[in-house]
Structure formats: structure tokens, C-alpha cells
Design goal:
- It is a single chain.
- It is elongated, with a radius of gyration of 27 Å.
- It has 14 helices and 15 strands.
- The chain folds into three domains: 293 residues, HUPs (Rossmann fold, 3-Layer(aba) Sandwich), CATH 3.40.50; 89 residues; 47 residues.
- The strands form five sheets. It has a four-stranded parallel beta sheet, with helices on both faces.
- β1 and β2 form a beta hairpin.
- With 476 residues, the protein is of the alpha/beta class.
- α1 packs across α12, α2 packs across α3 and α5 packs across α6.
- It binds one RNA strand of 75 nucleotides through α1, β9, α6, β12 and β13.
RNA sequence: GGCGGGGUAGCCAAGUGGUAAGGCAGCGGUCUGCAAAACCGCUAUUCGUGGGUUCGAUUCCCGCCCCCGCCUCCA
């Protein structure tokens, strides 16, 4: 079965076919962060969705070439650096670092390239594109010296968002004080310098200024991936105007279809509203970590809802994610223990161990269906229950356990949620040893107190025939 | 007003023209010194709402209601 994805452009589920001759290389561009502060987990929901997409494509044998831009110059970064009284680059640097740290925490695969808008080569590429657009009558310099895209000369403008440009209403979100523009819908390609920009400016054929927001993605994408991309992703709020503008700019220059599949993820909500910096209802990843949750728990919590459905963020949801992961952790632990058993190699035969291949297909097929994460997770949990049953019944051979662990490895190459918890800390081990002694002496009261103590420290302990088993219950 | 997304058990959430996956929480049982974990059983005669098509609709069609987003630099 083939991979099918919902294309915003057509508003339909389409079969995915990359443009490359080899049929295996996928060129993917993903809109990255504006580094004027730490990204919030709503931003990361988009990056996690893209990560899931990349990982599934790779699991399906595609080679993904991905680029993610870093917007390090815009109104907000300029305002921020001036408020801080430091050069633009000094202001954005910590947020760039923080962004990469957060990607690591959430186990998001790195793109091949993270081009920055202020990179001189990228600025040069943007200027070159603008020059081409001006020469073709698709852009003009207005009386305010800024250069604007002339949307009336690009009839396809509005097709991605399915907007009829005559019916647009201003929401007042952006000030419409640009009377110099020929048409209200024309957007800036190059913004002429003014005092508010301070030391932030570059030279161009139209005078000093800085690039508009949209042009950076067009320039970077074509510079690094070529004129035509397979996939371009972002949040739904990027559909208009950002991605619409990218199409106009890029196709205005190349004359070729810019992107084959446009994928957009729905918003992360808080209290029934979109999480956003301007509403002040956001959590950064750092905020959530500070409450004791781990990166993989956040990863799971943000992945477990389909990318095109709104996801309401709550700490109850975080708790649910933690519990679900604990179920997976315990299952893996049991499989590892069983796979290491020397006995039972012969004679025992598990029905479930032979279903590995089919189940793997079920999981992948769910993902093929426009990344149906819920159906995929259902496959995981159904298999967990079946394997646990076999373990309880003592009919899962060590070889069967190993084959299930191999199955999980494949699954986890996409989900990336396996615990990487290190060993047991010394202070915990001391308590466990003390409890073992108490239990030998049948001092149940003392044993129970130590169990409570361990629980308070985030370690679940349970007693089995082989002795105490420890599970980290929080974090990790 | 235009264009989209969503409304399925206490919560999260799949799904199909034939009578509702999975997770979390809860209850009962097996196991246990007691627990925990695991397993077994129970927990939506019902899928926002009113019509229509149909032998049969949560699923198809029409109308309506509610929530959320975008409508010119928000992922």
C-alpha cells in the first residue's frame, strides 16, 4: 500500500510520489522558528509532526533531504535586540542555541541544513530573486522605497488558501498603513530601512533595508533543495499569507511548480484557545520540563493526536502520556528479561512471535494513511497486551521475546519514545538493598515504608519471584 | 461575511453502509504478606442536532447549533 497524504493545495488525500527520478529522494522544506525567544510547545508540535513524517518516510525507504530555516531578522528580533541594547546576532544567538537543545530533548531529527536569514549568501540569493521579480513586472519599488510583490500579476495568488482576494476582510492584526502599495494585498519583498531598524540593514539595488519575511524561505528552499520541492510543511497559520507568498515568489522566478505536497498541522490549544505568544497562554518546553516531565513524555503527548486535529494541551494529558509510556517501558523490560533467559529455547513456541512481520505492516500501514497515529498506537498496544498474555502464560520463548524487541525497534525508529534511563542511582540502590533485608526478615512495615520512600523519589518498586523490580515512574 | 479544522464513553481518541479500535481514569476478579505490574471481566443500545436516502447510517445527502483557526510578516 502506498503513502497517502492530505495536500492543503487540493484539500484532498493524495498518493505520495516524489519528483526525483530515482523515486526515493524526498526534498522537504519546513518552516522553522523565529529566534526572538524560546519556542513554545505549540511551535514544537509542528516540528514533531514534521519529524514523524520524516521518520516514516525513512522507514518506508525514502531518503529525506530536509531543510529548516531559522528566521533571525524580523520586527520582533529587531525590537528585542534594541530593548536589550545588543547587536542583533548577540540577541538571537541564545535562542538559536536553545532551539537546538530543545530539538535534542524532543528527539527531533536534525535537518541537513538550518539556513539563517541573515547569512550573507542567503541575503544575496533573496536580492537576486527580487531582482528577477522586478524585471518580470511581478514586483515594484514603491514611494516608501520598499519593494512589493504585485499580486495582480500573479493570478494563482490565493489558490493555496482558497481565498477570493476580493472578499478578504482585515482583522486588524497587521497595521494597514502602507498606502504606498498598489494593492492592499501586495506584500513586502524588501523593506526599506527606517530609524526603528537601527543598525540592522543590508545594501541592495533598492537602497539599504532588510528582506521581507516570505522571501527568505523561497530563497533558502531553492538554494538548498532546487526549484521544486516534494513536501513543504508548517502550521496552518502559515498557509496564508506566508506559504501563499512563497508560491508567488518562487514560481514567479522559476516558472515551475514550487511544491507538490503542502502539509499543515493544526494548532496546539490551551484552555480551548490557540497557544500563542501574543495571548500569553503558552508553555515553553523548559516550563514543562521544570514541572518534572521529560522530553520523551512531551514528545509522546504531542504526537499522540493526529496532526490535522487540534490538540488541547493539559497536564492531565501529560500524566496520561506518562502512564502510557510506563506501560510500554514495563513491557520492554519484561521482554528484555525474557530474551536473556537461557532456558526455554527449545520446545516453547509462541503464536505471537510469528506475527512480527504482519504487525509491523499494520503499524506502517496506519502511518501510510496520512500518518494515522491513533490507529498505529492501537496496533502497538494490542500487541503489548497479546505479548504480556503470552509472557504470563509462560509460552513466549526467549527467541520470541527477542523478535518482539526487534519489532519494537522498528516501531521506535518512527515513534522515538523508548526510555533511555540510565542505571539506578546509588541512593536508590541503598534503599532497595535495605528493603531486601527487611523483606528477608519479614519486616513488612519497614518494607512498606521503604517502598513509599522510593515512590516519593519517583521509583516504582514491585516484588516478583526474582526479587524487587524497579521502574522509574517520573521523568526519564 | 469568505475559507478551513473539530464536535464519538468521566477524559484523550480511531473507525466502518450492517449494529462502536486503542490509551488514561474507575469498578470487580486472579496473583501478592499487603501492594504494584500483568492478565481476565465490566464501563457509549450510542457517535452535536433536525430531517432525507436505505432493509439498515455514527458512516451518504440537506438544514441547523456549538467550539477553534486563518482572512496580508503567528507553527
Amino acid at each position: 500500500m502506498s503513502l497517502r497524504l492530505f495536500n492543503t493545495y487540493s484539500r484532498e488525500i493524495e498518493e505520495f510520489r516524489p519528483i526525483a527520478d530515482d523515486g526515493r529522494t524526498v526534498k522537504m522544506y519546513t518552516c522553522g522558528p523565529t529566534v526572538y525567544s524560546y519556542a513554545h510547545i505549540g511551535n514544537f508540535r509542528a516540528y514533531l509532526f514534521e519529524d514523524l513524517l520524516q521518520r516514516h518516510l525513512e522507514a518506508r525507504g525514502y531518503g529525506v533531504e530536509r531543510v529548516m530555516n531559522i528566521t533571525d531578522v524580523d520586527d520582533k528580533t529587531i525590537r528585542g535586540c534594541q530593548a536589550a541594547g545588543v547587536p542583533l546576532g548577540d540577541f538571537t544567538e541564545p535562542f538559536k542555541q536553545g532551539f537546538f537543545e530543545d530539538l535534542g530533548t524532543l528527539r527531533i531529527k536534525r535537518a541537513q541544513a538550518f539556513p539563517e536569514a541573515t547569512d550573507p549568501r542567503q541575503i544575496a540569493a533573496m536580492i537576486e530573486m527580487i531582482r528577477t521579480l522586478v524585471s518580470r513586472g511581478l514586483a515594484y519599488q514603491a514611494d516608501d522605497n520598499s519593494v512589493y510583490f504585485r499580486i495582480k500579476n500573479f493570478p494563482a495568488y490565493g489558490h493555496l488558501a482558497h481565498f477570493n482576494l476580493d472578499e478578504l476582510q482585515s482583522t486588524g492584526r497587521v497595521k494597514n498603513d502602507e498606502y504606498e502599495k498598489e494593492s492592499i494585498g501586495d506584500f513586502a519583498l524588501w523593506k526599506a530601512w527606517d530609524e526603528a531598524d537601527g543598525a540592522v540593514h543590508w545594501e541592495s539595488p533598492w537602497g539599504r533595508g532588510r528582506p521581507g519575511w516570505h522571501i527568505e524561505c523561497s530563497a533558502m528552499a531553492t538554494q538548498l533543495l532546487g526549484d521544486q520541492l516534494d513536501i513543504h510543511c508548517g502550521g496552518v497559520d502559515n498557509i496564508f499569507p506566508h506559504h501563499e507568498a512563497e508560491i508567488a515568489q518562487t514560481e514567479g522566478c522559476t516558472g515551475k511548480q514550487f511544491v507538490r505536497y503542502w502539509l499543515h498541522c493544526a494548532h496546539l490549544m490551551v484552555d480551548g484557545q490557540k497557544m500563542s505568544k501574543s495571548l500569553g497562554n503558552f508553555h515553553t518546553l523548559r516550563d514543562v520540563l521544570a514541572k518534572g516531565y521529560s522530553g520523551r513524555e512531551v514528545r509522546y503527548a504531542l504526537l499522540r493526536v493526529h496532526y490535522r486535529a487540534p490538540l488541547n494541551f493539559t497536564f492531565e494529558g501529560m500524566q496520561e502520556a506518562r502512564q502510557s509510556l510506563t506501560r510500554i517501558d514495563d513491557w520492554i523490560e519484561r521482554l528484555r528479561a525474557r530474551s536473556a533467559d537461557a532456558d526455554g529455547e527449545n520446545g516453547e513456541r509462541s503464536a505471537s512471535s510469528t506475527r512480527e512481520q504482519a504487525d509491523n505492516d499494520q503499524f506502517s500501514r496506519a502511518f501510510d494513511d496520512d500518518l494515522n497515529i491513533s490507529a498505529a498506537l492501537a496496533v502497538v498496544f494490542e500487541n503489548i497486551r497479546e505479548t504480556n498474555r503470552a509472557l504470563d502464560d509462560g509460552i513466549l520463548a526467549p527467541a520470541g521475546a527477542r523478535s518482539w524487541l526487534e519489532w519494537w525497534e522498528k516501531i521506535d525508529s518512527v515513534l522515538a519514545v523508548t526510555s533511555d534511563a540510565a542505571g539506578i542511582p546509588a541512593d536508590i540502590a541503598t534503599l532497595v538493598e535495605a528493603r531486601a533485608q527487611a523483606r528477608l526478615a519479614k519486616e513488612w512495615r519497614k518494607s512498606d515504608e521503604l517502598r513509599d520512600q522510593l515512590a516519593a523519589l519517583g521509583w516504582g518498586v514491585r516484588d516478583s519471584k526474582e526479587g524487587q523490580k524497579l521502574t522509574r515512574r517520573a521523568g526519564a
